[in-house]
Amino acid sequence: DGDGSHPVASSAARRINGAVRIKLSASTGAATTPLLVSGVVGPNKAGRTITLYRVLSTGALQTLANTRCASDSTFHFSVRLARGSYTLQVAMVATPGNAAGASRFAITRS
């Protein structure tokens, strides 16, 4: 309700989508054992696809694996990587009500 100096202001309602949150953990160990990556997506995205990528030196993403979130929105990947240092990314595309989300991490396999 404005006052004598300031008129009433109004604007159209807008929906703002927050990005999905991805919390994750990864195993460490020798290159002879699979790398285990697990985590949870919030808000709950049961049944939605989530992807594990390798981030190449050019910044391009190379798909390593896809999986679906479980009923409690958790996910698990198991991949084999040779010895070396890697930057990996777990990501989910935009979903109804949420923008896309991603988490990157670095890991060294010996």
Give structural notes.
The chain has 110 residues and is mainly beta. Helices cover 0% and strands 52% of the residues. It contains no helices and nine strands. The strands form three sheets. It has a four-stranded antiparallel β-sheet, with no helix packed on it. Strand 2 and strand 3 (35-42) form a beta hairpin. It is elongated. The termini are far apart. The mean pLDDT is 85.
What would you say about this model in short?
The chain is mainly beta.
Gap between N and C termini, in Å?
A: 66 Å
Mean pLDDT: 85
**In percent, how much strand structure appears in the residues?**
over 45%
- The helix content, as a percent range, equals under 10%
| Rg computed from alpha carbons, rounded to a whole number of angstroms | 20 Å
| Low confidence ranges | none
Count the DSSP helices. 0
Annotation, overall tally of beta strands:
9
Topology order in helix (H) and strand (E) letters: EEEEEEEEE
Strands side by side in the biggest sheet: 5-4-7-9
List the helices and strands and how they pair.
Blueprint: E1 18-19, E2 21-26, E3 35-42, E4 49-55, E5 61-68, E6 74-79, E7 84-92, E8 98-99, E9 101-109
Parallel strand pairs: 1-8
Antiparallel strand pairs: 2-3, 3-6, 4-5, 4-7, 7-9
Protein traits:
single chain, 110 residues, 9 strands, 52% strand, elongated
